[in-house]
Amino acid sequence: MTSTTAPTRVCFQLLVKPELLDEYIARHTPVWPEMLEEIAASGRRNYSLFLGEGGRLIGYYETDDDEAAQAYLTASAVAAKWEAEMGRFFIGLDGRPDQAATPLAEVFNLGAQLDAARAATPSTPNESTAS
């Protein structure tokens, strides 16, 4: 599906149990091929996970329709199996990790601010080429 609007950027946070960090990393190197295909089929792209100190996990992806992507994964038997296995890795999580992660508010985006700044600045003809 091609969209004429900017994609939705989604960032979320989870906390991995410190005693399970090595196993969590091993489960993602690599992720099941069929789960990778389901994520892509849902419409999520540029999906990354970043692991910080103390098990702080930050995830990021882009999508044209996050509600549709979420619904697709909710209905997926592959995703349900993956999430059921992954749930034990997280602290303070109630529900499937893909549905219960804490979303983060975007407060800055370089591309969006550059576009806005450029749109607000009137362009002036290049004086060296004026006749």
The pLDDT mean sits at 91
Morphology call:
elongated
Order of helices and strands: EHHEEHHHEH
Number of strands: 4
| Range of helix content | 25-40%
CATH architecture assignment name of the domain at 17-105: 2-Layer Sandwich
How is the CATH topology of the domain at 17-105 named?
Alpha-Beta Plaits
Strand residues, percent: 15-25%
Structural class determined from secondary elements: alpha+beta
Low-confidence stretches: none
Report the radius of gyration as a whole number of Å: 20 Å
What's the CATH C level of the domain at 17-105?
Answer: Alpha Beta
Helical run tally: 6
Q: Ends: how far apart?
A: 47 Å
Largest sheet: 4 strands, antiparallel
Strand order of the largest sheet: 2-3-1-4
Short descriptors:
131 residues, isomerase, 6 helices, single chain, Dimeric_a/b-barrel, Alpha-Beta Plaits, alpha+beta, racemase and epimerase activity, acting on carbohydrates and derivatives, 19% strand
